[in-house]
Write a structure and sequence with these properties.
The structure is a homodimer. Helix content of chain A is about 35%, strand content about 15%. By secondary structure, the first copy, chain A, is of the alpha/beta class. In chain A, the strands form two sheets. Chain A has a six-stranded parallel sheet, with helices on both faces. The first copy, chain A, has a five-stranded parallel sheet with strand order 2-1-3-4-5, sandwiched between helices.
């Protein structure tokens, strides 16, 4: 799944920051890929990018019109259809993170076909995939895992890519979720893959590479989440990770969306992830803990990170507040003898 | 996914017992659902059922023409298409375990539409499914788990259903694979489900039930199989099993299809499955071990079962040689106080 950059980010009539979370992620992590934003009447949110019509964006080199926004009803409203058609006419492909497929709207499908444009539904995976084979691949791999969903796995992985590249290391973010795919312009929506092929999909996503190359794989879910653990385990086996970073939000009261399920402890999460990771890479090791401490004072957060680092013997940071340099220093020691 | 019984089993030009394995499973476990078999010229295999044309089968009450056979190329040969059309004309629905969808052959799709017959592709899941919610359901559940794929999970589950019903217990086999679905006439092909919905699919497959009702859930794969562990974990979480039966083939040299992966030990398999099962049902327990001892003398097999039972403190049987009565006796003690 490849999305051609640069993008024009579509914000619809957004009045709620949550609705444009995906588009904001793209603008934050790949500003060089965003020529502008396009809003409809009534929108009150901006990402601070130049406001451009599809035609103006094409003139500045845009290749893809990105619908990186949530839509309550799951439908594609008429005003959006109009904007999509305008983008197609202006020469742009369309990439959408909506559940509903773009081609399910006849006029969009017909216009795209007539104009020879691509409709890319990043929530759906139609690529033929192999069953995982567990064969050792060359190059190094890092996977973010977590105590729960939405504890900072994508953010941590992207922060690692940025910090590693700053040090001249050969590192590439490998996206497994919709926001990640729009940011990277490529990837595989692992939760949309047929379950027989989860680990096989990850093997395809992170193929053989040079010995000093790092694939930084965006983790999903948690081995302890009753809704999504299967995805997390297939991802862990398929990744054959040399290095794991464990992500956690200390103050979370319960598993996301499941008020009757408590979070696992960090210790449990580390033990179980390591045990399963070693099934496909006997050298798998934990290289860091990443905490989301947004609810804490900086002082308390620093103390918690220091305590956590001492207990588990690896660096512990809040990537947003402290950066991930301490973890990158660990990674410089790879491959370990 | 419901398939209306009774069936006419299609054997094509089969000359190899392996090719008709699925059809044979249906004839073995649900003889009352099989009015006959239908072979083409050149076939040398029979299941011992009456040889009937589709029209003759319809006259005896058949409702569905079952393609429970493997096909090397994955294609649907012309001779098969002819037989399928004949079955449609005779008034039968078609249920197929082939990878290729029946409706992908235009003449089959058109004829079925014109005649108002159903085309049921049991390897594909098109049903809309929910994300798993992990909520406790009423009734009791048993799940077969294993050290590997193809170690007897389906056979053990069906044998338990038979033995429990013989004792008057309220037990129902819940199919998760293609042979199981044809045998039960219903089920969900869990490895064909989109990975986000694995545990949700199992929750749908085994809904709330009477307190003394047992759903006996056909397990798939193994938590230790690098290709399929995600499916196995989603199944384990979604099942909320009260009782687990661990299946194993003692002499197997390596994980199925993966010569470079050793089998986990029984002890490991029990520990890890119990730990994960307890995430969604804190009372989950092991009630038996099922061994495939086909490569051993009966004397050696009996000794191994006795030793295994002593080590793990639960009954251990080879269901094919010794039946599963010892395990059913354990189940009679449920719900445990």
């Amino acid at each position: 799944m490849m999305i051609e950059a640069p993008y024009l980010l579509f914000l619809g009539e957004a009045q709620d920051p949550i609705a444009v979370k995906t588009a904001r992620g793209v603008a934050q992590w790949r500003p060089e890929n965003c020529v502008g934003e396009y809003s409809l009447e009534g929108a009150t949110i901006s990402l601070g990018l130049p406001s451009l019509s599809p035609a103006a964006a094409t003139a500045r080199g845009a290749k893809t019109f990105v619908l990186g926004l949530a839509n309550a009803g799951g439908t594609i409203s008429d005003t959006w259809v109009e904007a999509i058609l305008e983008a197609l006419e202006a020469g742009l492909d369309i990439a959408s993170g909506l559940h509903r497929r773009l081609a399910s709207v006849p006029i969009i499908r017909e216009r795209a076909e007539a104009l020879g444009r691509r409709l890319i539904d990043i929530r759906h995976s139609d690529a033929p995939l192999p069953v995982g084979n567990g064969k050792k691949r060359a190059g190094m791999r890092l996977l973010t895992v977590g105590t729960d969903c939405s504890v900072g796995k994508m953010y941590t992985t992207l922060a690692l890519e940025q910090a590693m590249r700053t040090r001249g290391m050969d590192a590439e973010f490998r996206a497994t979720g919709q926001t990640g795919i729009l940011i990277a312009g490529a990837g595989l929506p692992i939760d949309a893959v047929v379950s027989d092929f989860i680990s096989g999909a990850v093997e395809v996503l992170t193929p053989d590479a040079a010995p000093d190359h790092w694939d930084l794989i965006e983790g999903q879910g948690s081995l302890f989440h009753p809704s999504y653990a299967g995805v997390s385990l297939g991802l862990l086996h398929g990744a054959q990770a040399d290095a794991l970073v464990v992500c956690h939000e200390p103050d979370r009261p319960h598993m996301r969306s499941l008020p009757y399920y408590a979070l696992p402890s960090l210790a449990q999460t580390i033990d179980v992830n390591l045990a399963f990771a070693r099934r496909t890479n006997e050298n798998a090791t934990i290289v860091g803990v990443s905490l989301n401490t947004s609810s804490m004072t900086f002082e308390n957060a620093s103390k918690l990170c220091a305590d956590t680092a001492r207990i588990y013997g690896v660096p512990c940071v809040d990537p947003l507040r402290m950066g991930v340099d301490d973890i990158v220093t660990e990674l410089e020691g790879f491959p370990r003898p």
